[in-house]
Fold Importin-95.
Amino acid sequence: MDIGQVLENAILNPDQQIRAESEAQLADAAQNHYVPYLGMLTQTLGSSEQKTEVRMLAGIALKNQISSKDNKVKLDQAQRWVMLESELKSQIKSTAVEALKSTDDRVASAAAQLVAAIADIELPINQWPELMNILVENTKNEQPDNVKRASLLTIGYICETADPSNSGVVSQANGILTAIVQGAQSSENNPTIRLTAINALVNSLEFIRENFEREGERNYIMQVVCEATQAPNTELQASAFGALARIMSLYYVHMKLYMEKALFGLTVAGMKSEDEKVACMAVEFWSTVCEEELGLTMYEDFDGPRENFHFADVAIHEILPTLLTLLTSQDEDADDDDWSVSMAAGACLQLFAQDTGNNVIRPTLQFVEANISHADWRFREAAVMAFGSILDGPDSEALAVLISQALMPILQLMNDESLHVKDTVAWCLGRIADLVIEGINVETDLPVIMQALLAGLGDHPKVSTNCCWTIMNLTEQLGHDGSHTDSTPISPYYQQLIPALLASASRNDNENSSRTSAYEALATLVIFSAKDSLNFVQELSAEVLQRLETTLNMQQQIIGMDDKANLEELQINLLGLLTNIIRRVGEDVSSASDRLMTLFLSLLQNKLPNSLIEEDIFIAIGSVAGAVGDKFTVYMDAFLPFLKAALEDPESQTCFTAIGLVADIANSLGGAILPYTEGIMTILMTNLQVESAPRDIKPFILSAFGDIASAIGASFGAFLPLVLEILQQASSLRAEIDASLDYIDYVFSIQEASLDAYVGIVAGLHDNPDILQSVVSPVFSFLEFVQNDYTFMKSESVLRSAVGLIGDIASIYPRGEFKDYYKLSWVAEVIKKARSDPDFSQQTKDVGRWAREQQKLQLAL
């Protein structure tokens, strides 16, 4: 095979069929002729006679054979690389390093990615020790610019993907830092090289922690970055401010001196830059300052006291006016996805309000008063944006007074001629409703607000979307107990709101998420509806059901992918709303359950290829099961094939939802689910053995075992030996000290699911103590194993379940068959924690006291 020609055809040939055939040839070579394929790609990458595009593709193809975004594939590729013959690996590495010197930046960039991919495998296992020396040598002043750029790019890639806690990589920190500083210092005349070096520095900051702890090295790093903020090249300036933000986030504790000497003045000047990207990144620096100080305050109880320098408070008199001024620099024609300096300033102002509290009120209020009636729409919009941005942080009492003064002038701007102003007003109202609901007088303010919102629902989709959000916030805040009360302050507006929202939801498209927002607002009205609004909810259900049925016919009219996406988004919105209606109406849905299930099964039967709606259908079916209880049995035979098909695909997200649905159905049917359990349990146990299944599916399955056991009682005995073996293996997992946060979360979820399973098994076998006997020892072994895990046991729900389990077993065996367990000191400690912790709810304390009484009875025997 002429690999060069095949690569050229794959990327450059205008004939689509030839491109496809070439891609197939490459895939076959990678699959069936791996070693020769790597050799041919290496030869092509190193050949200056090949076209640039061909060499570039050869480098990328090599990289893709060594590294992948999929973690499992990446691990397999790494193992395959390690097993390669040393001679071939050396050839690939030397060719890649040599290609870094290519005068064609595209070839050199592909080589940089390849070198980084190999380094990601070899550096952590202390191989390729000469690499960093090569890269450092390549960045020296006497080297050609193209070589310096490519080598710095390589370092950036290495640091971007490597684990900063791996000692093999961290040991290269000195070389990494030397190379970066050589390229970033002001004596380097090529701005592209300095830019590449600064970007590499950002990626390397976690690796050079020990260097940064040393004052001399830290001073030099800070000098290099600060000098870069003053470079003539604005792209370099912006990256340097980004580097300062990253340094602030990682090394706040060291920043006091640098803030006093340089950073304050540099960043204020940067915020005032005429270049928008530079200004944005300088603003981002202050956002990072606020985030760090908020974090110090938030986690003080967990991490112990760490010094907070209150940089934002110290700088507020200079920074806040600058941010407020930047709010007025909106671009009328900017795309919604474009991040502008005015948007950055608004986000930073919100963080300043959270960080400095009441200190932002006076200067911001002065800005609002001066500009809310300004002739230029930019200043009116900035005034409203400023007001809305400071509503989270200052005292609610102080804000409530301000809102009472400013609300009516702000509401008047809902009729402004500028779309930007109206959009921001609707957003500001949503912020008020969400954060300072006490600032709204239900008797005098709410009627005016509702009229403005009703008008806004018929306005531009941007305005409509924010009006929907405001309605949701008002409903949640003023009607949070709605489902348990006769009426709420929102009840009088249901008659107007529901038709207006349905009209807004009738748009043909979903511009600015306006249609989705309308359905979400309707769902919120349903969830928090009081008894006096249930008739409106029932009327709404008929309209939603009809709209969903109509979508079945619309499926036949789909022309392209845009039509498919638009229809699926509509179906998902309707299913979500219908699910909430079913849950709110409860048993009253029984009369419509046949129609509902017929529709849901039709949607499953006729769903489009690669459809996204299956999960939402399952969730809706779960709500029907919850509403009708054991009457759901009549639908099981028709539904079971769809449920099994989803369960048998453990690699899909739908499988997670299907497992949750099994739990819902088990709780609804109770013992009536027994005829279906053998098939379902077989699938669930098989899924636990599927290596390609995501590990996060395991906690779902373990928890489902408990729901099934609770439902079928003694009949679960047939599954008990294997389930106990699975639980004992799973629940013995422990996260090591240096484990990643993801793995710690995974272990927590496994332990919690194991506890749920044991609770369900004990509940299901409550009346069958002879069968339950084999469970008692594993339960106490598990509880003893986890009771020393402070993080796990500090969860109130976990502790309540554990203590309830201890009490349940005692009550099931009143003759003391297992009384020795109740003599253990840790059992008494766990029970004491549940009944005496002042932060726990009365429910948990009651469970603790009951368990204590059961323990006493056992000890008295």
Notes: The chain is about 70% helix and 0% strand.
